[in-house]
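User: Hi! I'm working on a homework problem where we have to compare a predicted structure to a textbook description. Could you give me the structure for the chain below?
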Amino acid sequence: MSAVILKIKQTESAKDLPLPSYMSSGAAGMDLYANVQAPVTLNKGDIQVIPSGICVAIPQGYEAQIRPRSGLAARYGIGIVNSPGTIDSDYRGEIAVILINYGDKSFVINRGDRIAQMVI
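Assistant: Happy to help. Predicted structure tokens:
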């Protein structure tokens, strides 16, 4: 089986953030980071669209799925409204993550926080 080549481009506002990467050799998803200029507070029940600062070129015949991070879900009740979100192979815009706070307390998203996973 040959490797899938995924081209990733950072937006100008995200040049200081890490590129998505697998955090372990067995990881299925790459972490996406919050490209927010100031902290964003998600109160109980709030929905916010959080930019990731990346655009991808997915090969024809593949898709990227944007999934919640289990740690954020278990500890704080943070999920993704359209989970899993689908990024089609012909989409070239910035990936954004639609987060929701199902928890009982407010949750603050800071620049560079890991907010979701991208699975190809």
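For your comparison, note the following. The two ends are 15 Å apart (CA to CA). Helices lie at 70-76. Good luck with the assignment!
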